[in-house]
From TrEMBL:
Domain of life: Eukaryota
PROSITE patterns: FN3
Name of the featured protein: Fibronectin type-III domain-containing protein
InterPro entries cross-referenced by the UniProt entry: FN3_dom, FN3_sf, Ig-like_fold
Length: 73
């Protein structure tokens, strides 16, 4: 139906040192589009000493959803 999910996408922000917190002025970089059945994805090539924020957004036939809460692993 029209409400079913059709995809997800993951975005990343690279947080500057020494801020270590989310900054709404920083750009979001779209990393990948995922199939709606995806339940995991490994992000590679990150700087091990860098600080990042991630968010996931769902897409359906009618609209793009609101981004998830920002997660910093």
């Amino acid at each position: 139906t029209e409400g079913n999910l059709t995809a997800f996408f993951i975005e990343r922000q690279t947080l500057p040192e020494p801020v270590k917190k989310r900054n709404s002025d920083l750009p979001w970089l779209k990393l990948v589009d995922l199939h709606p059945d995806s339940r995991h994805y490994q992000i590679n090539n990150l700087d091990p000493i860098g600080t990042y924020a991630f968010r996931v957004t769902a897409i359906n036939h009618r609209t793009i959803g609101n981004p998830s809460e920002i997660k910093s692993p």
